[in-house]
């Protein structure tokens, strides 16, 4: 059974390293239809699609399963971006339901603690699924929390602790905002090939695709920059080339 990390890297070799964040406003009608349409139109330029918590809530289990099956039919991986953060039993039940709905990976918040995170990763990997953890988010106000100094065995910033935990628990990747290229460089240097770096915030939030790729990002997470474009295929194609360093 191939791991999530392997499946994602295989499709990325041909399709590039762009993950579509299907971040529509929840008030948008025909969410299922629009999402499936995006997959069909944009799949040659994507390696995965990410569905955020606020978009999962209006959809039924049947609709989510259909979206995931469509993505898989076109070779894409699917990520449930729910920032999972709870006690071990709740995490287990939550992910079991996500796997039943066809997701390949979940994004979790490591604030749950190292032991809970290790158990989550162990459970996910047993099913061939992936876990991506937050390290530093893309919004400007993220500095207020992720840059905060904390002390366990030593003094360090919160994102540095989260990176340490990601390495210790052997997660598949970390989220580091494209708006903080220096932090991407730090994480890339420390993690090496052990972790993939997923960077949201390209375009609309101000992140530059070429800069973050050169800083060490492995995958670009892009939503509104593609979804709101007059020619989304052209934008996706351009980001695909950036992600491949062309």
Describe this structure in words.
The chain has 246 residues and is α/β, with parallel strands linked by helices. The protein contains 12 helices and 10 strands. It has an 8-stranded parallel barrel with strand order 1-2-3-4-5-8-9-10, surrounded by 8 helices. A two-stranded antiparallel sheet has the order 6-7. Strand 6 and strand 7 form a beta hairpin. Helix 2 packs parallel to helix 4. It is globular and about 50 Å long. The model has no long low-confidence stretch (mean pLDDT 94).
Summarize the structure.
It contains twelve helices and ten strands.
Write the layout of secondary structure elements.
Blueprint: H1 4-15, E1 18-21, H2 31-42, E2 48-52, H3 53-56, H4 61-73, E3 77-84, H5 88-100, E4 105-108, H6 114-126, E5 130-136, H7 143-146, E6 149-151, E7 155-157, H8 158-169, E8 173-176, H9 181-191, E9 196-200, H10 209-215, E10 219-222, H11 224-227, H12 232-243
Parallel strand pairs: 1-2, 1-10, 2-3, 3-4, 4-5, 5-8, 8-9, 9-10
Antiparallel strand pairs: 6-7
Helix pairs in contact: 2-4, 5-6, 6-8
């Amino acid at each position: 059974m191939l791991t999530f990390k392997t499946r994602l890297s295989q499709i990325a070799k041909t399709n590039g390293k762009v993950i579509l964040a299907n971040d529509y406003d929840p008030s948008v009608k025909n969410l299922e239809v629009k999402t499936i349409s995006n997959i069909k139109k944009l799949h040659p330029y994507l390696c995965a699609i990410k569905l955020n918590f606020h978009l999962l809530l209006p959809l039924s289990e049947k609709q989510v399963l259909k979206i995931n099956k469509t993505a898989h039919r076109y070779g894409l991986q699917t990520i449930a971006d729910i920032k999972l953060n709870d006690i071990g039993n709740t995490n287990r039940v939550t992910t079991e339901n996500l796997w039943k709905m066809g997701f390949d990976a979940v994004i979790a918040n490591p604030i749950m603690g190292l032991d809970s995170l290790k158990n989550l990763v162990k459970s996910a990997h047993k099913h061939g699924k992936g876990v991506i953890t937050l390290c530093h988010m893309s919004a400007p106000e993220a500095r207020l929390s992720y840059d905060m100094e904390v002390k366990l065995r030593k003094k360090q910033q919160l994102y540095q602790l989260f990176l340490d935990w990601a390495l210790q628990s052997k997660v598949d990747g970390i989220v580091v905002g494209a708006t903080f290229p220096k932090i991407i460089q730090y994480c890339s240097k420390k993690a090496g090939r052990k972790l993939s770096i997923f960077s949201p915030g390209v375009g609309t939030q101000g992140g530059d695709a070429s800069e973050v790729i050169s800083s060490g990002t492995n995958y670009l997470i892009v939503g509104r920059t593609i979804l709101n474009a007059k020619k989304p295929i052209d934008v996706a194609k351009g980001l695909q080339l950036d992600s491949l360093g062309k």
